[in-house]
Write a structure and sequence with these properties.
The protein is 77% helix and 0% strand. By secondary structure, it is mainly alpha-helical. The two termini are 35 Å apart.
């Protein structure tokens, strides 16, 4: 399962040149190019798996090249920056960047990115989730703190909303293939059927990710960071990031569904 669960926050003022693009700087401070590379790889892998399911041994014509373009890193970056500019006020972006230029902010930015890259590996994901769940069952204080923080920040809800939107977009695009006979009511039913299991899966993924990513932080550093996350700027940045990433995921899923539908239609010509 691929879920983006980046957690962020804020504060403190640092002078910078007035000509700088604050959103580009924030993008760099969050190491988002590394995350984009993971998104591309995951997108290509998921597209291949889906194509094997629907197209089987059919000639794929231009499908592969279209998928490669769909998950181009430059395109994903452009969409993310557009989303940040739309969802995050410039003043909030400046304060968020100020935090990520502090020693704690630099460290957390690195840990979050390293964790996101690591958990994209299926074996690491499984291990991270298992370790976090064991810690939670053992009433490990840090695991309980992070579980509570994740709930307070609505991380599962953000991810669940994004997952639903992406699934709806994909199935709507796929429904353009007449031979599948999928209508909107069926799409909604399919999505709703998995709601509870998906929520539970996301809960475990989120805890697995944060428990692994923040392990190097001292208790004091973690406490300070969680305080930053719950500040108004931290919430604004977190909201903007989820809005941006979920928008990219939804658009990509919809386009992938359309590409598959076109390939299915072309196969039958």
């Amino acid at each position: 399962m691929r879920i983006f669960a980046l957690i962020t926050a804020t504060v403190l003022f640092v002078t910078r040149p007035v000509y700088a693009d604050i959103y580009q700087e924030l993008y760099a401070a969050l190491h988002m190019d590394e995350v984009v590379a993971v998104m591309r790889q995951e997108g290509l892998e998921e597209a291949e798996t889906t194509a094997e399911m629907y197209l089987k041994n059919s000639v794929r014509n231009n499908f592969d090249s279209a998928v490669d373009a769909l998950y181009a890193e430059a395109s994903i970056k452009r969409q993310l920056l557009k989303g940040l500019r739309a969802a995050l006020a410039k003043a909030d972006a400046e304060l968020a960047l100020d935090f990520y230029r502090t020693p704690l902010g630099v460290l957390v930015g690195q840990l979050e990115t390293t964790g996101r890259v690591a958990i994209s590996n299926d074996a690491v994901e499984e291990m991270a989730i298992s370790i976090a769940q064991d810690a939670l069952q053992a009433k490990d204080e840090r695991a309980e703190i992070l579980q509570s923080a994740a709930e307070e920040m609505g991380l599962t809800e953000y991810n669940l909303s994004g997952a639903f939107a992406a699934r709806f977009a994909f199935l709507s695009g796929l429904a353009e293939a007449d031979e599948l006979g999928i209508n909107q009511d069926q799409i909604i039913e399919l999505i709703a059927r998995d709601k509870d299991s998906l929520r539970a899966e996301i809960d475990k993924w989120v805890l697995g990710y944060v428990y692994m990513a923040y392990r190097p932080l001292s208790d004091a550093e973690l406490s300070d960071y969680l305080a930053f996350q719950n500040s108004s700027i931290g919430k604004a940045l977190n909201h903007a990031l989820f809005e941006s990433f979920n928008a990219v995921a939804t658009d990509s899923a919809g386009q992938l569904g359309k590409l598959l539908a076109s390939a299915l239609e072309a196969r039958d010509l």
